Amino acid sequence: MSNNLDLNRLRDTVIKNQNTSESKPLMQLNKVFVDSEGRIHEGSDNHSKRASMSEVPQETFANRGLIESNIVARYMPQNTKKITTDEGVSGWLYNFRCELEDNYTMFAYYDGNYYQVLVIEPKVEGVWDSAHTGHIFSDGKICFGSEYDYGLQSLQDAYSKSILWATGLSITKRTEHFPFSNNQ
Questions:
Q1: What is the pTM of this model?
Q2: Closest alpha carbon to 77 in 175, 160, 178
Q3: Could you give the C-alpha distances from 140 to 101, 119, 120, 134, 135, in angstroms and in order?
């Protein structure tokens, strides 16, 4: 390596900053930079081109599986279980009873960009002439809005909104009006 980077020292610096939650440390000595050639530089380097380098954020690399498992354990029904569909999609299957005492089974999964929720039971797709009435697509996927490609950014958000949606859908089945959307 041309810049004589000490990888052990770099690892120690990054781990120390992660342990103290310093994604972008204030002390120059604890900073890490990357230049336009893909070379890593420590903050202690006396580098004249630092203004043209990118500072590396040093938070812990995410582990989506571990994050999801923690969300399931903390926020989702005890009956939630991880499954993989025949198509190879991994996600979380859960059952609950909504506020109107109707039973629901749902499957929450990450589509590569956002979290989606598929209604397994009861069969509600195709019940209305318009998917907008029940906020459900013809494939049984809940429409959470267009901001995140009809999904949500976290498993916790997708789960919690699916619970609200289920009560809204149960009301819609009885009244033909979805109560939790200001655009209806």
A1: 0.71
A2: 160
A3: 20, 5, 7, 10, 10
- On average, the pLDDT of the chain sits at 87
Residue 121: which H helix or E strand, with range? Answer: strand 115-121
Alpha helices in the chain (DSSP H): 7-19, 64-75, 131-134, 155-175
In the chain, where are the structural domains located? 7-55, 64-175
Residue 170: the pLDDT is 93
Q: Please, what is the angle between helix 155-175 and helix 64-75, to 10°?
A: 50
d(CA 15, CA 22): 10
What pairing do the DSSP bridges indicate for beta strands 40-42 and 90-97?
A: unpaired
Phi then psi dihedrals of residue 165, to 5 deg: -60, -45
Which CATH fold would you assign to the domain 64-175?
Answer: Ubiquitin Conjugating Enzyme (3.10.110)
